[in-house]
Automatic annotation (TrEMBL):
<dbReference type="GO" id="GO:0016020">
    <property type="term" value="C:membrane"/>
</dbReference>
<dbReference type="Pfam" id="PF00487">
    <property type="entry name" value="FA_desaturase"/>
</dbReference>
<dbReference type="GO" id="GO:0008610">
    <property type="term" value="P:lipid biosynthetic process"/>
</dbReference>
<dbReference type="InterPro" id="IPR005804">
    <property type="entry name" value="FA_desaturase_dom"/>
</dbReference>
<feature type="domain" description="Fatty acid desaturase">
    <location>
        <begin position="69"/>
        <end position="333"/>
    </location>
</feature>
<dbReference type="GO" id="GO:0016717">
    <property type="term" value="F:oxidoreductase activity, acting on paired donors, with oxidation of a pair of donors resulting in the reduction of molecular oxygen to two molecules of water"/>
</dbReference>
<dbReference type="InterPro" id="IPR012171">
    <property type="entry name" value="Fatty_acid_desaturase"/>
</dbReference>
<protein>
    <submittedName>
        <fullName>Fatty acid desaturase</fullName>
    </submittedName>
</protein>
Length: 362
């Protein structure tokens, strides 16, 4: 059930929570003071590597006649798109690299290789989700408006189709994110002119994405346009599935909590930190899996410090875990398969009313 009082749930005194928050503030200040050339070099190397892999994959897809080469090229393109989506687009969009003052690598100028407009996503994600994480009726990312993710959400007969909705969401994940950002922007548009501008932004970005992936790239491939069209379609599908798995593993495994709107009334910064801790989950990953997931294997650290560079999350996690042990706060983590299978189990369970099949028959 959703938490109405985070302090009582965590069994912490007001003084403990404020001390916990002060130690997290210290972690933030330590990282901010140490940012420098090595961090800037990291993100620039990732950009170069991602773009190089993208070009190499496309050349392999078009330049080779063998099926095996097409498969390798398509898999490489899917990986390049995944890195661009998460380690670059998502993290740059959070402002993690704004401190560099590089206009090419800035949250206000970077446009990712996705159907949704970055500007619309930044509001729905950076503000609605990260500020109000897991607050029922406020955080629109809770189930993305199509899934029941807690028993606090009233069951409806349409939820019986939730497993199919979940599968569809995974397949068209980038379009779901685009829709999500669009609706968040529409909610704050206060005039008809503003609403038209929101619609125009969404349609323009979707149009450019479709034109690039399914018209221009195939045209450039001349007689091999079918190979490129198929590769782009499969690569986008694989990228969507991977992004979906990573996001769900960070937000819906066992141990991740939801909160009532009352829980955030007069919320202090330290209480906000505590809510982030309780409302996110990690999965275990080495360096390769970390960069493949945009370092969102450290979802807890990301929710605590969404605008700190992702390459620092691994070292931050060591100090965060020590704090969790000190204050006896749950640090939810597990293997990637375990975390994902938990989300699938929850999805099937919540497709049914609280009384299970017996309630359906009634």
């Amino acid at each position: 059930m959703a938490i109405g009082n985070t302090a009582a749930y965590a069994n912490l005194s007001r003084a403990d929570i404020e001390a916990f928050g002060a130690e997290l503030d210290l972690i933030r200040s330590d990282v901010e003071e140490s940012l420098g050339a090595r961090d800037a070099s990291y993100i620039r190397r990732v950009i170069i590597a991602q773009r190089t892999l993208d070009v190499a994959a496309r050349l392999l897809i078009v330049g080779s006649r063998s099926k095996a080469a097409w498969l390798v090229g398509t898999a490489s393109l899917a990986y390049a798109k995944s890195v661009e989506n998460m380690e670059l687009g998502h993290n740059i969009g959070h402002g993690q690299w704004d401190w560099m003052n590089d206009p090419e690598i800035h949250s206000t100028t970077w446009e990712w290789d996705m159907a949704g407009a970055s500007s619309q996503w930044r509001y729905s994600h950076n503000y609605r989700h990260h500020v109000f994480s897991n607050v029922l009726g406020v955080d629109d990312d809770l189930g993305f408006g199509v899934l029941r993710v807690t028993r606090d959400q009233p069951w409806k007969p349409e939820h019986l189709f939730q497993p199919l909705r979940n599968l569809l969401l995974a397949v068209i994940f980038e379009w779901g994110i685009a829709r999500h950002g669009y609706h968040s922007d529409m909610e704050r548009a206060d005039t008809e002119e503003a609403k038209r501008a929101v619609s125009a932004t969404m349609l323009a970005k979707m149009g450019r994405q479709v034109l690039k992936d399914y018209v221009l790239w195939p045209m450039l491939s001349l007689r091999r346009w079918r190979r490129t069209l198929a590769a782009n379609t499969v690569a986008n599908l694989l990228r969507n599935l991977w992004a979906y798995v990573v996001i769900f593993c960070g937000h819906f495994p066992d141990g991740v909590q939801q909160f009532t709107p009352e829980s955030i009334k007069n919320e202090t910064r330290a209480e906000w930190y505590l809510r982030q801790m309780l409302g996110a989950a990690n999965f275990k990953a080495g360096p390769l899996l970390a960069i493949s997931s945009g370092n969102l294997c450290y979802q807890i650290e990301h929710h605590l410090f969404p605008d700190l560079p992702s390459n620092r999350y691994a070292q931050i996690s060591v100090r965060v875990r020590e704090l969790c042990e000190k204050y006896n706060i749950a640090y939810t983590t597990g293997s990637l398969p375990r975390q994902y299978l938990q989300t699938v189990r929850t999805n099937f369970r919540l497709a049914l009313p609280d009384g299970g099949w017996a309630a359906v028959r009634r």
